[in-house]
Design brief:
The chain is α/β, with parallel strands linked by helices. It has 2 domains: about 90 residues, Orthogonal Bundle (Arc Repressor Mutant, subunit A), CATH 1.10.10; about 220 residues, Vaccinia Virus protein VP39 (Rossmann fold). The chain contains 14 helices and 10 strands. A 7-stranded mixed beta sheet has the order 6-5-4-7-8-10-9, with helices on both faces. Strands 1-3-2 form a 3-stranded antiparallel beta sheet. Helix 10 links the parallel strand 4 and strand 5. Helix 9 packs parallel to helix 10, helix 9 packs across helix 11 and helix 12 packs across helix 14. The two termini are about 35 Å apart.
């Protein structure tokens, strides 16, 4: 999946096809504009203001407690980018904004957008970070509860779509009784497995900030009697043993190579014989040729956020195999096409 410039008319198409359009400046300017617009509109409550029907600028400004003139410019910009409809002095939601950006929608990505606002802040000093090579790991940066709330609920939003598909695509030889979700703070993937297997009990190991938010999310879903939490750093804590299923989801890109190799060993030791180990992580094709958008950008993103990297699939497979796992299987996800889902078994 790649982002790109979509020409609106014949002149645009000619300019793009002939190489006369300065694409770097176009992509830079409009990329900054669109990302910031969506975040600002969601944060201010613009989309929620229009859930019950169209409104004037003044009505939206009153709802969001904003200056009318300032709000009008934001609304016009959102209309220009195709996120609001505009007619005779009134603004309204279109299908895209109603489905994805309103808090009350069953498909809402509001929490994910709020997490994107945190990522925006953390990438503001990118130039200096790249120049110095000095980074910090956001997981150990003494972040306030508000950050952890946006972080966990943002990730839980993605899991809502991918969780059911992952459960379908992970074959289990026996009905699992015990699951360990390592670094799975929001517990959404653990809950997805619990919903399929009625006898399954899940345990989530994660840092205290993540656990605090995860408990709230699990309670909201009514599964607090089947999902418990244990605070601890996965790099140092004992994982336990006797589990039928171990999940290591979106963790590897936040730890070093040595820590990742050790995590595979811990996963093997935590499982019963014939237990299943499932990894979900960022796609990285590796090799010496051109990279995909996700492979290339995730190299940078996780360096900035966690002082680590997105690791090539070949490396992850080697670590898993060296730990003793066999029968490795890869699955593609429609809900998350830019990820790696890898399944292994302890014989």
């Amino acid at each position: 999946m790649r982002l790109g410039i979509v020409p609106e008319g014949i002149v645009d198409r000619i300019a793009l096809a002939s190489g006369q359009l300065p694409t770097p400046i176009v992509e830079t300017f409009w990329g900054i504009a669109l990302g910031r617009l969506i975040i600002t509109g969601a944060q201010l409550g613009v989309f929620d203001a229009l859930v019950e029907g169209e409104k004037t600028v003044e009505e939206i400004a009153e709802y969001t407690k904003c200056d009318p003139e300032g709000m009008e410019t934001l609304l016009d910009a959102l209309n220009g980018f195709g996120y609001l409809a505009r007619s005779d002095g009134h603004f309204s939601l279109n299908k895209k904004s109603r489905k994805w950006l309103t808090k009350t929608s069953s498909s809402s990505m509001y929490d994910a957008i709020m997490f994107m606002s945190e990522l925006w802040k953390m990438m503001e000093d990118m130039e200096q970070t790249i120049k110095s090579g000095k980074t910090t790991n956001l997981h150990y940066a003494n972040k306030p509860p508000e950050f952890w709330e946006r972080y966990m609920r943002g990730l839980a939003t993605f899991a809502k779509y991918a969780g059911p598909e992952i459960v379908r695509k992970v074959p289990l030889k026996i009905k699992p009784k015990r699951l360990l979700g390592v670094g799975g703070g929001h517990a959404s993937y653990s809950m997805a497995f619990c919903r399929k297997y009625p006898e399954l009990k899940a345990e989530v190991l994660d840092l205290s900030g993540a656990v605090e938010q995860g408990k709230k999310i699990v309670k909201e879903q009514g599964l607090e009697d089947r999902v418990i939490f244990r605070e601890g750093d996965l790099r140092e804590a004992e994982w336990g043993e006797g589990y039928d299923l171990v999940l290591l989801f979106n963790v590897i890109h936040n730890i070093s190579v040595e820590e990742a190799e050790q995590a595979m060993v811990k996963a093997y030791q935590a499982l019963k014989p014939k237990g299943t180990f499932v990894i979900l992580d960022s796609e990285h094709i590796g090799g010496k040729g051109n990279l995909s958008v996700t492979s290339g950008f995730n190299e940078l993103l996780f360096f900035l956020l966690s002082s680590c990297r997105a690791y090539p699939e070949e490396s992850i497979r080697e670590w898993v195999t060296n730990a003793g796992f066999t029968k490795l299987r890869k699955r593609k996800l429609l809900a998350m096409p830019m990820t790696l889902l890898l399944i292994g078994e302890r014989e």
